[in-house]
Write a structure and sequence with these properties.
alpha/beta; 12 strands; single chain; about 15% strand; 16 helices; Collagenase (Catalytic Domain); 2 domains; 4-stranded mixed β-sheet; elongated; TIM Barrel
Length: about 400
């Protein structure tokens, strides 16, 4: 590996930081170079600061070049970047940014030092260093977006809603799911509710037999539905809050308030080798609780972002979604998102680098009435595919 991470704190996702360092090496044209990154705490970096710089107390980042004082060349081994997680966390909180973002900034700062620039030598060099850091951070963001393409899963609940309105056997959500897959959808989502207002047991069983991509069963943590899920064995289940009087799912699951119950339910699905996703609001405490109860995925609720009526409110809600996605990824969770996304609001969420999949239903089905289901899916898929270019 060009970048090697050592995390003495055990508090970060090693793979995430290593991959970020690799992308930074590529961004500055040093793909073949080797870089060592050490994540430590305040006492650890204070000891290094005293031994090597003669300064007391902790700092946020230190850089030790392999060729100290030498002109910048094409050395294979660049050196070491040491980051204090304690200091980085305090700075992130003070700046109102995620720890993940602050670690990225400090990693860039240390790397630029290794490439030969030093802000302490002159004000001119400090300006050059700051400009290079901004450029590398922008390149990093672009490379991260391009690395993976967000997947699109289509929720076919509303096909069943239309069928149930007449109490007949069409339109059939099973047929609709097949059309969605042929149009490029990477998964099919259905919500089997306790009151069976749209999707029926028959639909779930037939979909299990016919879906070729991935079947995601949304459900409340109710014993009857749990038993059906364990029998049918979808590719994954997403636990959601469920109220009989609601038109559609309102808000995320209160994982903090149901930790014991959710831990037990997730353990049962884990024994059956069925991954569990928790549908949660973009709240950092709910993200951490989701990890604690053993979830594999979280699905970040995007409803408030989509429903915002002003640009400033939408920006605020977007930042909450972005931070929750970053936090979940850092905690080792896989990240999906959904609820309320349409042809205007999807692109911005799809561009977030840590989100694997978007679950979209109502907007696609509404569009399908006008242009047909195949085209409606392809149009939404194009939005997702272009978001990270």
């Amino acid at each position: 590996m060009p970048a090697l991470l050592t995390d003495t704190t055990g508090r970060l996702c090693a793979g995430l930081i290593e991959r970020k360092a690799d992308l930074l090496l590529a961004a500055c044209g040093r793909t073949g170079a080797e870089l060592s990154v050490l994540i430590t705490d305040d006492p650890g970096i204070a000891e290094l600061n005293s031994a090597w710089r003669g300064r007391q107390g902790p700092t946020n980042v230190l850089a030790f070049a392999m060729q100290e004082g030498e002109p910048l060349g094409q050395e294979r081994i660049l050196g070491d970047v040491v980051i204090s997680l304690d200091t980085a966390a305090r700075e992130a909180a003070a700046q109102g940014i995620s720890l993940h973002q602050r670690i990225a900034e400090l990693l860039v700062h240390g790397l630029v030092h290794l490439l030969g620039l030093d802000h302490e030598r002159s004000s001119e060099e400090a300006c050059r260093m700051a400009a290079m850091e901004r450029d590398l951070l922008e390149r990093l963001n672009i490379l991260q977006r391009r690395e993976t393409m967000v997947k699109l899963a289509i929720n076919v609940d509303h096909v069943a809603t239309l069928r149930q309105a007449r109490g007949i056997d069409e339109p059939d959500p099973v047929t609709a799911a097949a059309i969605c897959e042929l149009a490029g959808a990477a998964g099919i989502v259905v919500h089997l509710r306790e009151d069976r207002r749209h999707i029926q047991d028959r639909d779930v069983r037939l979909l299990r037999q016919t879906v070729k991509t991935k079947l995601n069963l949304e459900m409340g943590a109710d014993e009857e539905i749990i038993a059906i899920a364990l029998e049918v064995r979808p590719d994954m289940v997403t636990l959601v809050p469920e109220k009989r009087q609601e038109l559609t799912t309102e808000g995320g699951l209160d994982v903090l308030g149901q930790e014991r119950h959710l831990t037990e339910v997730i353990a049962r699905f884990r024994e059956a080798d069925i991954p569990v996703s928790l549908f949660i609001d973009p709240d950092l405490d709910q993200v951490r609780a989701s990890r604690d109860v053993g979830a594999t995925f979280v699905e970040i609720h995007t409803g408030r972002y989509c429903d915002a009526t002003s640009e400033s409110d939408r920006d605020k809600e977007f930042e909450l979604v972005a931070r929750a996605a970053e936090e979940a990824y850092e905690k080792g969770l896989r990240v999906n998102a959904g609820h309320g996304l349409n042809y205007q609001t999807t692109a911005r969420i799809a561009a977030l680098p840590f989100i694997e999949e978007l679950s979209i239903g109502h907007a696609v089905m509404a569009r399908a009435i006008l242009v047909g289901l195949d085209q409606a899916v392809r149009e939404m898929l194009a939005i997702c595919q272009n978001a990270r270019r």
